[in-house]
Amino acid sequence: MRGPGLxxxxxxxxxxxxxxxxxxxxxxxxxxxxxxxxxxxxxYSHALQDPPGWFTPLTRPVWIYRLSQGLHYxxxxxxxxLLLVKLYAVYPRFFVRPPxxxxxxxxxxxxxxxxxxxxxAAAVFQVASGLANSSQWYPxxxxxxRSTHYAVAWVAIGALLLHxxxxxxxxxxxxxxxxxxxxxxxxxxxxxxxxxxTYVASGLAVLxxxxxxxxxxxxxxxxxxxxxxxGGVPINKTARVAGVTASATEPGYVLTVxxxxxxxKLTLADLAELPQVTERxxxxxxxxxxxxxxxxxxxxxxxxxxxxAPAGSTVLATSLQEDGPYRTxxxxxxxxxDPLTLVALGLDGETLSLDHGFPCRLIAPGRPGVLQTKxxxxxxAI
Amino acid sequence: xxxxxxxxxxxxxxxxxxxxWLALSLGLGGLVEAGAWLTGGVLVHDFVIAPSAIxxxxxxxxxxxxxxxxxxxxxxxxxxxxxxxxxxxxxxxGAKPDDPYLLNRAYLAWWFALAAVLFLVAAGWALYAxxxxxxxxxxxxxxx
Lengths: 382, 144
Description:
The complex is a heterodimer.
Chain A (H helix, E strand, L loop, with lengths): L10 H4 L6 H29 L14 H27 L12 H32 L10 H32 L14 H19 L29 H4 L2 H5 L4 E6 L2 E6 H6 L3 E8 L5 E10 H7 L8 E5 L8 E4 L1 H5 L4 E6 L2 E2 L9 E3 L12 E6 L1
Parallel strand pairs in A: 1-10
Antiparallel strand pairs in A: 1-2, 3-4, 4-7, 5-6, 5-10, 7-8, 7-9
Helix pairs in contact in A: 2-3, 2-5, 2-6, 3-4, 3-6, 4-5
Chain B lengths: L2 H21 L3 H33 L6 H20 L1 H5 L15 H30 L8
Helix pairs in contact in B: 3-5
């Protein structure tokens, strides 16, 4: 039996002095900005991992990927409070009764609701799946995170542009008047109070995780996912998980360098006899964390010259891993030629540890961590 | 509608279609699962998160003295949104036994510390609001 007070609420039931375009538009601008930055930095990261033919990776400044992926992660984090408050502000719209008796109005209503549905679904998905990925949690079973996050990013940004186009007059009106215009007395937060609280929440959320990419915030970022006590470079995949413990510690280990039919097999002692350089380079993970280290090793271009490969050759690096999506990685000609691109044998003055990629690994400027191939077994110039 | 709005909206529709086209590479199984996650996110917001916020207002905030409501709502909003942001971290769902550097901090303890700080700040704000209200009404509990 339904009591007289029990019914599906309609828009007017949920309207409050806070749930207004004045609030939605202001939060929306910050949200749109964060989504825009996350979209562009996401495209850049995707292009590095799956480069289109016209794409040349940037190698300077050496921290370019650290910056772009740090921004990607932190703007995504900032989006959570902004998105929740934005949805709070427009929630009554969810209960607008469809204009059933007017076909044209009904069609427009359905289109508007459909586009908003796509926007909300894509926005929530991007933020939720990105946060899960940053903590290496993959609760989905079938789809690949990267392909799906990439495809839905286009949907989200497209639906956002459409939303801005549709709502432009509302946004303009909202900014034409002070935020508290027409605000009724309320016993809770004022509109200004709600906006300030939202910005504080976003700022604190960013601060609580930013230490992963901003080292001096490490001790205050209490919800950081990767934490190395005392600093240092975190490890994403251990030798045991990669299944390389035996092959990497095999005394007969050689690194094979190939160009066409020329091939050189270099033992660890051979590599150590080549000219060594030490460079301070960051390693920046797609999951948002980054850390700098002093890497010592051989310039990749020196190895390429050993087999007579010309400057500008693309180099394919292969790991001792027997499978996994990042078993191999490709270095564009400009990256392979870069004097800072090393086959590293040591980190921070010590021999590379097994989990950091012993016997040797790639480290190059401006490259995602997953492409800094560990436990190198073969380098082929193409 | 100006041409600029039409162009912006048209570009938006084009990008949505491009994203949907890219999603086809996920295969049927991937598409079905991604569709479930996309829909699930909206449902969780509309039927769990948003009603919970309303419930907290009616059950807790509305029953507080007027001077304590805004501070309580602000602290609850900050705590709730940060909690949702770091939920995968708090739950340590991605932890791996052989990765000592992943998800290795005392996150729950820090969460309680954050909650304590937020509600302490809120309490300070509430007491200040009460005193200001008392001063405005000329009550003798206002000593300043």
